[in-house]
Amino acid sequence: MTWYKSSYSGAQGDCVEVAMAWHKSSYSGAQSDCVEVAEGAVTLVRDTQNRDLGVLEIPAREWVAFLAEVGRD
Description:
Blueprint: E1 2-5, E2 17-20, E3 23-24, E4 35-38, E5 42-47, E6 56-59, H1 60-70
Antiparallel strand pairs: 1-2, 3-4, 4-5, 5-6
């Protein structure tokens, strides 16, 4: 689980943190967990088979736009 400073925290410190949990993306294949996401103010995306390679960080607004576009196909 990853913790992030909330945008509601004050300038003097990290008074509010938000946790995001990883879950299998609905776009993953039925045979394996190839894509995992953690959604929040920033959406994190990683390859389940290669977690050590890092993550993509996508602002929530762009993630929602991406999903809307993908859903049109």
